[in-house]
């Protein structure tokens, strides 16, 4: 009911709609307070009351709605009062937007209990006090907006622990002290706004601070140093003529660095010897470049966790060397529809503790980013994030094939229950499947740019749709040709040992031929 010029207060009787999933009354002229009866909507996943003239405190009952998982948007109203500790009850919420109200008081430390938060927008209010260092526990947070408040004190260095943070806005407050050098470690950060505060000292020189278009520090008169493009004055060098102090200033840092490097080297050697631990390769450096060229929107870990029932064993449909595949359902916008519809998907989660798993993820992304063919597996989206424990998380989301793999049909146990449902393949079906596979390989070898050699075609990597159409998947070992016009020896962008799965290695792989690959 958004944007309908509705007036008057929100009726308390709306709390009787206990089966309601989404409530959107945004962009109207509603006034009065938010009825506490909204706390009865215990199935509500999304609440949007933004762009009205609502006043008063937010009822505590709303913060107990654990069903809220998508968004709670109360922005651009006249709501006031402190943000109560009860906000900790929103444990499943992904977006909390309170922009443009009159909230006051200190930010509650209990916000760190909202583990699923990805977007926290509290800008344009009257919050005061310091920024709670406990916000650093929100490992999945991608945007933190505290701009245009009355916050004071220093910027907590703990914020550097939010490894997935992409946007940080702290402008137009009363923050003091220096800019923490630890913010250089936020490798995912693309926007940082610290303008119009009372910050002083030197501006860091690494990380986000190397790109003048990525950060703002205007309106902090006492800053110095930084990259030349900032045109700030040099930081004054402290003079010290005492010989003993001068010697200590050199010897102590040198010894500290040497000791640190020795400890770091020992830890690295110990870590390399641990079984089952992944060692990062040069492929990790190209991952961001590959994903930036892909045309689809990435998905968050929280969305995949919900889609697969927290990656439950009952949703597990396959296990491979580099990870597992789960059945899930995602709300996707299909052609000819105006609202998202739940679609069955296959979620391939990579086990990054396995050596080569990260390289396999990059290889699949490189191979799948440009190819489009009815007999090749269709990638829907991908996830590059951190899980609930703060560990790196990589996953690909594919179209679900309800008839599973060709291997399952060819090697079915005659005494199994599956045989009662899945009949043997007919001669026509086998012929059609063979033609589909040949069409897919022909496309990869001749029509895709760059040309691709799959290197691991086998029954378990051939999936079947509901109409028994065969699609080729699993591009983890795929190789990209350096010369798109070549049809003889397939010079690849990487070299190594034998290619393929043990037990099925195409003959002559020391020098892969396109023709040999399609015949095998």
Walkthrough of the structure:
This protein is an alpha/beta fold and 520 residues long. It starts with 6 loop residues before the first strand and ends with a helix. The strands form 5 sheets. Strands 1-3-5-7-9-11-13-15-17-19 form a 10-stranded parallel beta sheet, with no helix packed on it. It folds into 4 domains: 7-230, Alpha-Beta Horseshoe (Leucine-rich repeat, LRR (right-handed beta-alpha superhelix)); 240-274; 282-400, 2-Layer Sandwich (Phosphorylase Kinase, domain 1); 403-520, Transferase(Phosphotransferase) domain 1 (Transferase(Phosphotransferase), domain 1). The radius of gyration is 28 Å and the shape is flat. The longest helix is centred in the middle third of the chain and has 31 residues, at 243-273. It has 8 helices and 28 strands. Keywords: ATP-binding, Brassinosteroid signaling pathway, Glycoprotein, Kinase, Leucine-rich repeat, Membrane, Nucleotide-binding, Repeat, Serine/threonine-protein kinase, Signal, Transferase, Transmembrane, Transmembrane helix.
């Amino acid at each position: 009911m958004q944007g309908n010029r509705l007036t008057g207060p929100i009726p308390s009787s709306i709390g009787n709609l206990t089966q309601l999933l989404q409530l959107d009354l945004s962009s109207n002229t509603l006034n009065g307070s938010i009825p506490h009866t909204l706390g009865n909507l215990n199935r509500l996943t999304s609440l949007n009351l933004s762009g009205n003239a609502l006043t008063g405190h937010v009822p505590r009952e709303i913060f107990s709605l654990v069903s809220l998982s998508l968004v709670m948007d109360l922005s651009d109203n006249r709501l006031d009062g402190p943000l109560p500790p009860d906000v900790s009850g929103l444990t499943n919420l992904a977006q909390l937007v309170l922009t443009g109200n009159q909230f006051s008081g200190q930010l509650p430390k209990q916000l760190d209990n909202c583990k699923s938060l990805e977007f926290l927008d509290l800008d344009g209010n009257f919050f005061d006090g310091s920024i709670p260092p406990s916000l650093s526990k929100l490992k999945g947070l991608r945007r933190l907006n505290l701009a245009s408040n009355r916050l004071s004190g220093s910027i907590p260095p703990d914020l550097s622990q939010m490894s997935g943070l992409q946007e940080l806005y702290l402008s137009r407050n009363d923050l003091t002290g220096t800019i923490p050098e630890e913010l250089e470690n936020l490798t995912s950060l693309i926007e940082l706004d610290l303008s119009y505060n009372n910050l002083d000292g030197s501006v860091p020189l690494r990380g986000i601070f190397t790109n003048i278009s990525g950060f703002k520090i205007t309106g902090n008169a006492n800053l110095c140093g930084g990259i030349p493009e900032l045109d700030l004055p040099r930081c004054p060098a402290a003079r010290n003529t005492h010989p003993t102090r001068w010697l200590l200033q050199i010897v102590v840092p040198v010894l500290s660095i040497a000791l640190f490097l020795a400890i770091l080297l020992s830890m690295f050697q110990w870590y390399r010897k641990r079984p089952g631990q992944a060692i990062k390769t040069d492929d990790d450096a190209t991952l961001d470049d590959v994903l930036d060229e892909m045309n689809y929107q990435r998905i968050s870990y929280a969305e995949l966790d919900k889609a697969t029932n927290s990656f439950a064993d009952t949703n597990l449909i396959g296990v491979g060397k580099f990870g597992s595949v789960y059945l899930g359902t995602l709300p996707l916008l299909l052609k000819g529809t105006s609202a998202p519809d739940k679609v069955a998907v296959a979620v391939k989660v990579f086990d990054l503790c396995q050596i080569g798993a990260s390289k396999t993820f990059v290889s699949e992304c490189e191979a799948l980013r440009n190819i489009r063919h009815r007999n090749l597996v269709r990638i829907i989206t991908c996830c590059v994030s951190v899980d609930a424990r703060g560990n790196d998380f990589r996953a690909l989301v594919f179209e679900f094939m309800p008839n599973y793999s060709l291997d399952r049909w060819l090697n079915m146990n005659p005494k199994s229950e599956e045989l009662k449902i899945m009949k043997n393949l007919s001669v026509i079906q086998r012929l059609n499947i063979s033609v589909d596979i040949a069409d897919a390989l022909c496309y990869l070898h001749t029509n895709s740019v760059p040309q691709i050699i799959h290197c691991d075609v086998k029954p378990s990597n051939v999936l079947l749709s509901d109409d028994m159409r065969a699609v080729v998947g699993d591009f983890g070992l795929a190789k990209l040709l350096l010369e798109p016009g070549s049809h003889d020896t397939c010079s690849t962008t990487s070299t190594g040992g034998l290619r393929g799965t043990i037990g099925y290695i195409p003959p002559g792989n020391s020098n892969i031929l396109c023709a040999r690959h399609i015949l095998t």
